[in-house]
Amino acid sequence: MPKDPVPGLLRRASEALEAEFAALPDFAPAMESAADTAAMGQVLEATARRLGDNYPYFHPLYAGQMLKPPHPLARAAYALAMKINPNNHARDGGRASSEMEMEAVAGIAEIFGWTEFLGHLTSSGTLANLEALWVAGQLAPGRRIVGSEQAHYTHRRISAVLKLEYAEIGTDNRGRISMEALEAELRKGDVGAVVVTLGTTATGAVDPLDEVLRLKQRYGFRVHVDAAYGGYFRLIPEALEEPARRAFAAMGEADSIVIDPHKHGLQPYGCGCVLFRDPAVGRFYKHDSPYTYFTSKQLHLGEISLECSRAGASAVALWATQQLLPLVPGGEFARGLARGRAAALELDRRLRQDISGRIQALAAGAPELDIVVWKLNAETPRQASEWAQRVFMACATRDLHLALVELPLGWFCPAAGFQSGNCESRGAEAGTVTCLRSVLMKPEHEAWLDRIWERLTAACAEVMGE
Ligand SMILES: *Cc1c(COP(=O)(O)O)cnc(C)c1O
Q: Is the C-beta atom of 408 inside 6 A of ligand 1?
């Protein structure tokens, strides 16, 4: 592991924070006697050894799931906030961190051009989506929610929890919602909200939000954008291709947006965000609390959030990160995002040019964001799936950590004519195949691509033969 700057950063900041409370009479914390310190040290070392049983998420050779190391500043600010452990439910529990949350959330809303909005952090993208669909249900009771087959799996479950009917819409051969199938569903006249995913979890596909918004004028429904993973890509339109660029450009017209700072925003887990374009939806949250909201007449975040206690430290870490790395096009944060995207395009280019014949890229073209998927070339889908599993393992023994994903076979067949090895008959289109998947979301992935490629090709050769 590289040398960790956090302990050094924390030392002076800790002293500064202690100075803020220096006027209080001293006391000895009951749980921190000198003898306990030695015991704590021992347990902490044992803890460190337990934590060794993990994939090395922080390393550029970890290129599997959506795991991006938090910025050192975010870790330091989070740890610093732990000296206070604020609760952003109410100003009673977290005065400063509530203010910081509002500022940080305003910084996120600005990405989408929103200055008047309602929004707050949540403990996850799932909770944020739940709030958005809950509001949709309040506004159109009894109407259905629809999302694509590639929308996050939790939308169906959230809808069940909210007792809203949910329907899945088919996708095209790269995982974008099918506009024909969506319109057919809308014609039934009972759709209350459409979940539009900008950056699907499996492949980073971008639903055509601009086109969905055009249908909204005709059919009247709420548009909820799930950009838990993809939202920050709005900062780098120059690095995107059409039609994804158009979809991101239209985000300001959505009714609600979910974006996860703990996905691409360099934050520790426990940091999602939901935004509503119309602040008036705040009325649905209205409630009294017999315990809190006494210390200030100003807005308490618990008054506009379904959750009660929430980590104030999450807001503190996010606020600090956005101070250092403002969420602006062309800024350092945006450039980091663009480097991961460049790595994904380069990996995809190599997959397509691979002359070994072992690899098959998505027929529809290059990745839309920074997730790359590919299938292995085999006689049968079953063999391709088995090889994918084995290549995944063979990469891991070379310290390269990828992910696996089950995708429709048809996505690998050229649309016109099924000449290629695995698409000889129309029947080959049906069914799914296990594919390899790599989320190249760290800026370092760009510089490490040669080393990633070396290991991948060696693993393929080992499993599939020379
Ligand atoms: C990750 C993700 C979610 C769920 O967010 P969590 O923070 O994991 O709860 C929802 N939608 C999309 C598109 C995601 O990528």
A: no
The residue from 324, 352, 375 where one domain ends is 324
- The domain tally of the chain equals 2
Name the token pair of 342. 């460049």
Which structure tokens are listed for 142?
């009894």
Task: For residue 55, tell me if it sits in a domain.
Answer: no
Q: Is the CB of 125 under 6 A from ligand 1?
A: yes
Residues 247 and 383 in one domain: no
Do both 176 and 216 map to the same domain? yes
Ligand 1 atom 8, closest CA = 125
228 in contact with ligand 1, CB cutoff 6 A? yes
Residue 267, ligand 1, Cβ within 6 A: no
Do 346 and 319 share a structural domain? Answer: no
User: Six-digit token pair at 88?
Assistant: 């952003």
Q: Is 130 in the same domain as 244? A: yes
How far is the centre of ligand 1, averaged over its atoms, from the C-alpha of 200 (Å)?
9
**CA 12 – CA 19 distance, rounded (Å):** 11
Going residue by residue through the chain, which has 466 residues, state the pLDDT in tens, using 9 for 90 and above.
899 999 999 999 999 999 999 999 999 888 887 788 899 999 999 999 999 999 999 999 999 999 999 999 999 999 999 999 999 999 999 999 999 999 999 999 999 999 999 999 999 999 999 999 999 999 999 999 999 999 999 999 999 999 999 999 999 999 999 999 999 999 999 999 999 999 999 999 999 999 999 999 999 999 999 999 999 999 999 999 999 999 999 999 999 999 999 999 999 999 999 999 999 999 999 888 888 888 888 889 999 999 999 999 999 999 999 999 999 999 999 999 999 999 999 999 999 999 899 999 999 999 999 999 999 999 999 999 999 999 999 999 999 999 999 999 999 987 543 344 445 444 555 799 999 999 999 999 999 999 999 999 999 999 999 7
* C-alpha distances out from residue 167 to 132, 146, 201, 206, 443, Å: 17, 5, 18, 19, 37
Mutate which of 198, 260, 441 for ligand 1 pocket (most atoms within 8 A of beta carbon):
260
CATH of the domain at 352: 3.90.1150.170
C-beta 124 within 6 A of ligand 1: yes
In terms of domains, do 302 and 444 share one? Answer: no
**Ligand 1 within 6 A of 322 CB?**
no
Identify the domain containing residue 436 by its residue range: 332-464
Q: Based on the domain organization, do 421 and 311 belong to the same domain?
A: no
Question: Cβ(126) to ligand 1 under 6 A?
Answer: yes
Pocket residue to mutate for ligand 1, from 66, 201, 225, 233, most atoms within 8 A of Cβ: 201
Are residues 106 and 237 located together in one domain of the fold?
yes
Statement to judge: residues 350 and 249 lie in one domain: no
The closest-lying atom of ligand 1 relative to the alpha carbon of residue 151 is 13
Given the CA of residue 262, which atom of ligand 1 is nearest to it?
Answer: 7
Q: Does residue 267 belong to any structural domain of this protein? A: yes
CA distance 257 to 227: 7
Last residue of a domain, one of 308, 324, 340: 324
